[in-house]
Amino acid sequence: MSKRFAVALAAIIGAGLLATNAAQARPELVPVRGAEYSPGTIVVKTNERRLYLILDSGHAMRYPVGVGKSGKQWAGTTRIDGKYRNPAWSPPKEVKHDKPNIPDVIPGGSPKNPMGVAAMTLAGGEYAIHGTNMPGSVGGFVSYGCVRMLNADITDLYNRVSVGTRVVVTR
Fold first, then answer.
1. What is the pLDDT of residues 39-96, one digit of tens each?
2. Which of 7, 23, 87, 95 is deepest in the core (most CB within 10 A)?
3. Which of 146, 149, 150, 169 is catalytic?
4. CA distance 117 to 1
5. Are 117 and 85 in contact (CB under 8 A)?
């Protein structure tokens, strides 16, 4: 085996391992202190890049998330106002401005659709909690304000909550 071939093979295997690790869903049952949030509330802690679904006064499901990049972060309280499987995506004006060549609509299920397998829209704006077609971005400051989850994680959360669920985003 040539040295060049061996190096290329090692790079491919290493990239595959990294991609596999990045794409693994990893919700965790974790303890929470106090009764600051009522059961069923979604809490996004931007600085931690974590989303918590409060189960009861002492427990939550914790998920890794991608959040708003510098200048695109927000904090506040809202509610889920829609739930969609394999949603089509139309880029908001700000995204279209920054990326003028992006299509006006990317169909649901397309590998180029950044919404992933499901999305839950948030009342009062253009933000959503959604899956992703770029699993390596989860855990970073990467979005225009949306909360990005691994597809397996958004599927899990989607099945646990309903329209009207309270969402609290903190910095």
1. 999 999 999 999 999 999 999 999 999 999 999 999 999 999 999 999 999 999 999 9
2. 87
3. 146
4. 41
5. yes
